[in-house]
Amino acid sequence: MWLVLFSFGIAQGSSSVEHFTYPDFPRESEMDGLDGWYSGYDEDPWYADEWYVASDTDDNGGTFGSGDAADNWLINESIDANDMWVYSWLATEDDDTQGLVFNHVDSTNFFMIATIGIRSSDGGSNPFDVSGGFVGIIEVRDGDARVIDSMGRSISWDTEHYVAAGQNDGQVWAYVWDYEPSDESDWESPTWELGGVVDDLKTGGSAGYYAYDSGGTWRSETWTWFGGMTVYQYDDDDDGVVDDEDNCEFASNPGQADADGDGIGNACDDDWGEGEEGEEGEEGEEEEEEGETGSDTGDGGEVDTGISDADTGLGERDQEGGLVEDLQDGGKLTTCSCSAGPRTVPWSLGLLLPLIAFRRRD
User: Fold this and answer.
1) Which residues contact 32 (CB under 8 A, 6 or more apart)?
2) For residues 97 and 165, is the Cβ–Cβ distance under 8 A?
3) At a CB cut-off of 8 Å and minimum separation 6, what does 347 contact?
4) CATH 3.40.50.1820 is right for the domain spanning 6-236+307-353
């Protein structure tokens, strides 16, 4: 096993808290129906063996929500988050479609970081009406798919691709590393950076794996493997309360004090002291003191969006086959040097982003 730390700038610092982790798979097991995992395609039970999970079929056809092969995702019912990001890896011998899904509200509403085609091919079968090699972010909304951002490239054959992707306040991003790193310099930046902005977001959802016409395990020579997965929730103000549950998303208020009971915490409520007084207790008094000293964002106070010191790693695995222990600070959105798509500020802040990776068994 080996350890790598690297740093690069991100558009805006955000801490994150581990929401779900499944670093290892059971030996020789079907995953559909096991440990909260379930598939959208009844014909595919998905097959796992310790360090990987793989689609058990090589089928195609159908539309999103039809229950056919287009719905061949494997997600976990324990995952339920809105501002989230996911980390895993994938490798394939197939030239069709595979990727990770996140913010999976239902079969017709989710995001995906998808890869189509392998090097030396012209692309493969996919349900998105995409031609040629492809690495990109796709939004499926009400059953219709659209590309948010992409590159016209194929991924490497039979190589682990490390993938991180997520959504935070409507900003969708993905990082893909197209190689297995060997030293610190290899991890200084992802191979591809993708991002875009989504309006009228359908919130919440699960996360997991996706394979379309890409699998078959022992029945064919076109394997597609996925590694263990961890899902994080954003905590933009680094106060220990995830954004999805925080009554002041961008102002630190660990006690969640809300003196006037309006659902807006004292730390970001301009007129909390003017309404009906509530029982605050010790935590409420602390928040009130912060409000009086200018921590209220309505008064122009500063919001801490730096990297948290809390350990939000995947957890070290006791055998070769692991992937990542800590990818703190997935970031909201980065510049993309690929095809056209919505973008925001460039990588500039130079914040430390630790990543610890372990080589899987051969």
Assistant:
1) 38, 39, 44, 45, 46, 74
2) no
3) 8, 9, 10, 11, 334, 335
4) no
Q: Is-contact 206 35, C-beta < 8 A?
A: no
Q: Which amino acid is at 362?
A: D
Backbone angle region of 327, left / alpha / beta, with phi > 0 → left and psi within -120 to 50 → alpha: beta
Return the half-sphere exposure (C-beta side, CA atoms, 13 A cut-off) of residue 69.
Answer: 20
Question: Phi and psi of 175, rounded to 5°?
Answer: -120, 135
Please work out, in degrees rounded to the nearest 5, the angle formed at the alpha carbon of residue 97 by the alpha carbons of 91 and 101: 85
Q: Could you state, in order of their start, the residue ranges of all structural domains in the chain?
A: 6-236+307-353, 243-299
Whole-number Å distance between alpha carbons of 96 and 119: 12
User: What are residue 113's DSSP bridge partners?
Assistant: 100, 137
Q: Kindly state the DSSP code that residue 266 receives in the 8-state scheme.
A: G
Q: Give CA–CA dist 289/244, Å, rounded.
A: 25
Task: Give the global pTM.
Answer: 0.73
| CA–CA gap between residue 296 and residue 271 (Å, rounded) | 10
C-alpha of 286 from chain center: 34
Confidence band for 172, pLDDT divided at 50, 70 and 90: very high
3-class DSSP state for residue 310? coil
Question: What confidence score (pLDDT) does residue 215 get?
Answer: 87
For 29, the enclosing helix (H) or strand (E) is: strand 29-30
